[in-house]
Amino acid sequence: MKNKIDLKSETARILDKLGVPESAWRDGDMASFSPVTGEQTAKVRTTSPEEARRMIEAAHEAFKAWRLVPAPRRGELVRLFGEELRAAKEDLGRLVTIEAGKIPSEGLGEVQEMIDICDFAVGLSRQLYGLTIASERPGHRMMETWHPLGVVGVISAFNFPVAVWSWNTAIALVCGDPVVWKPSEKTPLTALAAQAIFERALKRFGDAPAGLSQVIIGDRTIGEVLVDHPKVALVSATGSTRMGREVGPRLAKRFARSILELGGNNAGIVCPSADLDMTLRAVAFGAMGTAGQRCTTLRRLFVHESIYESFVPRLIRAYENVTVGNPLETKALVGPLIDKAAFEGMQKAIEEAKALGGKVTGGQRVTEAGPETAYYVRPALVEMPSQAGPVLEETFAPILYVMKYRDLEEAIELQNAVKAGLSSSIFTLNMREAEIFLSAAGSDCGIANVNIGTSGAEIGGAFGGEKETGGGRESGSDAWKGYMRRATNTINYSTQLPLAQGVTFDIE
Ligand code: NAD
């Protein structure tokens, strides 16, 4: 089918408007595609390993100056960045839609998330608190101080092409750390655009050192330069568990810090007392939103046997009626998959589920939504007799496996019986059930929600998950501590030198 919007010119118009130099995207060596139509939109210039190393050295030089700038002044740079993002929201949001295929409200939502984290980080720049601690020795005082850590490397995934970088960068900058960013090779254009917007803020700020925020473009090999460089103190890496399994040990080998934000296999439990109208909407957004391509996408649903027959047919109807289509030209709620590999992965999982007795609604390709080079699918709902095979793995596509349960303890056990531990939800109006789910015997995930879906987190909380999700935390709460080094200070203002624990060591 013929698309009305010429994506190549539209992409060029936005990049130009946002101030990305043509040399970065016009005639480079890496083709960039839009999943909306599958067509090539730009040719991006990749970074060589040598260049990347030089950029890391520059970031390290910037660190030496930036760490001495008072934190509230560092916050001023982030405040200006937030202002620039507000001004660029429409354009950057549209570029997210073009490059990642998100529907417009989600593209804009992603930029809003960037603005929100800037606001959070500005406040944080005046709240980098340490503790004071009672000393056991007279005339002594103990405290802890927080200092900038060093260069922060950010590796990001295609599905949040700019928000994840901003979660890290806004916080790292107020903490006194420069950032070198390796975006996904599937979404380099939004990264170049975000960097150009940041540079506007830098210009207005005036006296920041060069090299505070830089982007390196390329595939995983350039990411490895970041991972292995001794002057990168922390790598915050978002992506698949497979990636984390490679990156984690490499960082550990040189004792660098890591924040790993990896795959999820998120579940919801629908209890007998649940408000089913609300649950239906929450499940629909959690499982079908972003075409199932969020790390927090709802992938498994345990429905109590007493309400299964009244709830699941309604959910199936929602699956049958949801609109799938070009996010730039229609009001569809479900956009494209990122590429052919994602489509094939989805089909494979559905076939495996069928072989295990799964009853499938949807899942087929929607060819009328775009040309042959684009991959639109109807989200799949698969009723499973038990939790086995593909249900135990993350397939990064819109497949929701639905299963019956009898008692809550069993449902929680099933929910926790996968390798990932990112997000989880319970739908109930029974306070005891909700509290059990949130208790030590409940969900083992980094995110546990009541009466809302598994996806769509706010920036105020610490974001991340347990087990094979990697254990990292970023964004709000006290996640900033991961970007600073802590020093414990003991100060003796007495005339004596008592040793701790009553130890004596008297020299004449
Ligand atoms: P991916 O793992 O293929 O790639 C992610 C990034 O890692 C890319 O920039 C890639 O170039 C880089 N990379 C891959 N191998 C590397 C290596 N050996 N060394 C250095 N860099 C390397 O993931 P994707 O397909 O872009 O994204 C989807 C996955 O990301 C899903 O599993 C999803 O759950 C996960 N994800 C997790 C979170 C979270 O916060 N937990 C958020 C978004 C996405």
TrEMBL record:
Residues 29-486 form the Aldehyde dehydrogenase domain. SUPFAM superfamilies: ALDH-like. Keywords: NAD, Oxidoreductase. It is an enzyme of class 1 (oxidoreductase). Pfam families: Aldedh (PF00171). InterPro entries: Ald_DH/histidinol_DH, Ald_DH_C, Ald_DH_CS_GLU, Ald_DH_N, Aldehyde_DH_dom, ALDH7A1-like. Its EC number is 1.2.1.3. It comes from the Bacteria. The active site is at E261. Homotetramer. Belongs to the aldehyde dehydrogenase family. This is aldehyde dehydrogenase (NAD(+)). It comes from Chelativorans composti.
